[in-house]
């Protein structure tokens, strides 16, 4: 552009005292958030805490199982009946604990046995088979103290009787 004197004037620099006319400064970019605290937090929430909770539950359950396996229950097995001579001697089978059993062949009536049951399975089972006597009558009974937990009677030749009792809810030592 030509000025009033015919010379070219340079228009790029403003006259002194005026600010440079440029673009305003852009704000700085936002700081990137670190991702590792989120990963650690997620691991804690979804892996470590449930694992710790399960471990606590398993520990509690193991303690309860151990406590139950050491608890004892005292019971009495009884077999009574009628019959004549050697035919009146029944064969008796009874449980003695978790998976154990005892037998009494040709038992004298009345027959009784005190047993202390231990272990996880607190279940009492008593069976008796009468001898070959048509007039035989046989009764089985499972008791805790004076309380009768189970009682059954059978009659006739080779009468078979069974008594079962779940002892898991009974108080013991």
From TrEMBL:
InterPro entries: MmpS, MmpS_C. Belongs to the MmpS family. The chain crosses the membrane at residues 35-62. Its main location: membrane. The keyword Transmembrane applies. This is MmpS family membrane protein. Keywords: Cell membrane, Membrane, Transmembrane, Transmembrane helix. It comes from the Bacteria. It comes from Nocardia yunnanensis. The keyword Cell membrane applies. Pfam families: Mycobact_memb. It is found in: Cell membrane. One of its GO terms (cellular component) is plasma membrane.
């Amino acid at each position: 552009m030509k000025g009033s004197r015919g010379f070219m004037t340079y228009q790029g620099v403003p006259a002194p005292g005026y600010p440079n006319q440029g673009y305003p400064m852009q704000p700085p970019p936002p700081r990137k958030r670190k991702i590792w605290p989120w990963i650690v937090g997620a691991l804690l929430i979804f892996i470590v805490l449930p694992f710790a909770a399960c471990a606590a539950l398993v520990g509690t359950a193991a303690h309860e199982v151990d406590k139950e396996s050491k608890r004892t229950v005292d019971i009495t097995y009884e077999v009574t009946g009628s019959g004549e001579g050697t035919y009146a001697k029944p064969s008796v089978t009874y449980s003695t604990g978790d998976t154990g059993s005892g037998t009494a062949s040709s038992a004298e009536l009345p027959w009784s046995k005190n047993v202390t049951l231990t272990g996880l399975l607190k279940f009492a089972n008593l069976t008796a088979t009468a001898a070959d006597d048509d007039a035989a009558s046989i009764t089985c009974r499972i008791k805790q103290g004076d309380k009768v937990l189970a009682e059954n009677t059978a009659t006739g030749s080779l009468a078979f009787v069974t008594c079962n009792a779940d002892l898991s809810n009974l108080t013991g030592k």
